[in-house]
TrEMBL record:
Sequence similarity: Belongs to the iron/ascorbate-dependent oxidoreductase family.
InterPro entries per the UniProt record, alphabetical: DIOX_N, IPNS-like_FE2OG_OXY, IPNS-like_sf, Oxoglu/Fe-dep_dioxygenase_dom, Plant_2OG-oxidoreductases
Keyword flag Oxidoreductase: yes
GO molecular function, one term: dioxygenase activity
Originating organism: Durio zibethinus
Official protein name in the record: Probable 2-oxoglutarate-dependent dioxygenase ANS isoform X2
Phylogenetic placement of the source organism: Eukaryota, Viridiplantae, Streptophyta, Embryophyta, Tracheophyta
Gene coding for it: LOC111301698
Keywords for the protein's UniProt record, in alphabetical order: Dioxygenase, Iron, Metal-binding, Oxidoreductase
Domain Fe2OG dioxygenase span(s) in chain numbering: 198-298
Highest rank taxon of the organism: Eukaryota
Length: 349
């Protein structure tokens, strides 16, 4: 899997055409309409102030989850300096150090979701897999038994401490948000968290180098995240898009905000009342982009199913239950492509 060359090397080589394995099929490329939309501010992606009265916050979350599956949070309690410092050291890792040093932290070959520095995430026996125009570093951060900072870069010197501190802040915010999301459905506050169980948290820093043919490529193909909830920060370049009512809309970076993306297991637990967010990353020709996503997933052995309080004779389950590890295996072997793995669980009701 990680025999793939780092995208940053291709970008820095000054190529004028992207290699064929990065060219998206025509149906996945940016259309003239989506090219226009990428330049428009997606100002109506909700921004929710967590310092407001709780009932107001819950109402705003209910609407955002129903309509979008994605929203910004502000006044969220995560120190702005920590967010800025994390972005700084992640960008420094990609930009300021020799490739030979970075490759010492390379992902393990032929292993899905292995920790480390990589470019290709999917495991496929086929040679026709289209690659994303992206390099990344994936950190296993929770539970603490998985957290081994010796697998993380030792440069810049504060890198490991910042990732650990950020992980600790993110788990607090994730739990707070899932409680509010549960309450917005009239459920007990711990409902979704109880269904997920102990959180398995990964933090992935994604680096999208300038691309000579952005109209042919994607930084990250269309997908919904497989776990329960994703918390994402990005720089000021922009390039994240969410699918809303059949159109791709660009999420403009909002200073000091954290973007919340509902993921597939939350859609299952809420019995489809809240949908996971389909999103992708586009590329540009002039400026590198950085984002840092923090994923919160169930353990592989957890069986996920619709919450019993949301299932009745008049509201039957819309999804079959699944062991989360089986879902992950399907996601990495078949590819995410929108929501096809989640859609395979839909029941005829």
């Amino acid at each position: 899997m990680e025999g793939a060359v780092r995208v940053q090397i291709l970008s820095q080589a000054g190529i004028s055409e992207v290699p064929s394995q990065y060219i998206q099929p025509p149906e996945n490329r940016l259309t003239p309409i989506s090219n226009i939309l990428t330049s428009l501010s997606c100002s109506n992606v909700p921004a929710i102030d967590l310092s407001h009265e709780k009932e107001s916050v819950i109402a705003d979350i209910r609407e955002a989850c129903r309509e979008w599956g994605a929203f910004h949070v502000i006044n969220h309690g995560v120190p702005t300096k920590l967010m800025d410092d994390l972005r700084r050291v992640c960008l420094s890792f990609f930009n300021d150090f020799p490739m030979e040093d970075k490759l010492k932290y390379a992902c393990q070959p032929n292993s899905a979701a292995s920790q480390g520095y990589g470019s290709r995430m999917l495991v496929s026996s086929q040679n026709d897999t289209v690659l994303d125009w992206r390099d990344y570093f994936d950190h296993h951060t929770l539970p603490l038994s998985r957290r081994n900072p010796s697998f993380w870069p030792h440069f810049p010197p504060e890198y490991r401490t910042l990732v650990a501190d950020y992980s600790d802040e993110m788990i607090v915010l994730a739990r707070r948000l899932l409680r509010l999301i549960s309450e917005s459905l009239g459920l007990r506050a711990s409902c979704i968290e109880d269904a997920v169980g102990e959180f398995y948290q990964n933090i992935t820093a994604s680096y999208y180098p300038p691309c000579p043919q952005p109209e042919l490529t994607l930084g990250l193909q269309s997908h919904s995240d497989m776990g329960s909830i994703t918390l994402l920060i990005q720089d000021d370049v922009g390039g994240l898009q969410v699918l809303k009512d059949g159109e791709w809309l660009t999420v403009q970076p909002l200073p000091d905000a954290i973007l919340v993306l509902l993921a597939d297991q939350t859609e299952i637990i809420t019995n489809g009342k809240y949908r996971s967010s389909v999103h992708r990353a586009v590329t540009n020709a002039s400026k590198a982009r950085l984002s840092v996503a923090c994923f919160h997933d169930p353990a592989k052995e957890v069986r996920v199913s619709p919450a019993s309080d949301l299932v009745s004779q008049s509201s039957p389950p819309h999804y079959s239950s699944i062991v989360y590890g089986d879902y992950v295996s399907s996601w990495y072997s078949k590819g995410p492509e929108g929501k096809r793995n989640l859609d395979a669980l839909l029941l005829d009701t």
